[in-house]
Amino acid sequence: MTAADRPVVVDIASRRREGRRPDRDDRPAPLLRKIYGEILRDERRDQDRTLDDVARTVGMSKQYLSEMERGRKEPSSEMLRSVCDALGMPLENLLARGVRRLSAPRPTGQHTVTGPPRVELMAA
User: Fold this and answer.
1) Where is this region: Disordered (predicted)?
2) Residue 74 and residue 114: Cα distance in Å, rounded?
3) What are the backbone angles phi and psi of residue 115, rounded to the nearest 5°?
4) CA torsion through residues 87, 88, 93, 95, sign
5) 5, 38, 53, 97: which has the fewest C-beta neighbours closer than 10 Å?
6) Which residue has the higher pLDDT, 7 or 91?
């Protein structure tokens, strides 16, 4: 039996006492605004466009767009649509790419989580 095949034993009671959910890793999920910002930045760079160019097209400041791309501003849905329109990207594409990034495996220490945790419950 390889290490990957061995079940993981989790003491659910102690995790609940500590305020942690037993079915999640200990790292917080990334914020949606950060994910959307990364996607918008990637799309803008793929098109070889500058912050200034896209910001002018949308009618916002370059600084605000930069803050959006770094996940520091929580843009409204209208603002997200405007930036997507300026990039020629449907808003639905941004949302779908965000879902894929949220559900992608996240590294946890020495290994990467690639599916639901394998947990074996044991009576105490």
Assistant:
1) 1-29, 101-124
2) 29
3) -170, -170
4) positive
5) 5
6) 91
Strand partners, 9: 120
CB 39, CB 92: distance < 8 Å:
no
Q: pLDDT grade, residue 104 (50/70/90)?
A: confident
DSSP at 88:
T
Helix (H) or strand (E) holding 6: none
Look at residue 108 and give its three-state secondary structure.
strand
- What is the per-residue pLDDT across 45-58, written as a single tens digit (0 to 9) for each? 999 999 999 999 99
In CATH terms, the superfamily for domain 32-90 is lambda repressor-like DNA-binding domains (1.10.260.40)
Tally DSSP H helices, then E strands, for the chain: 6, 4
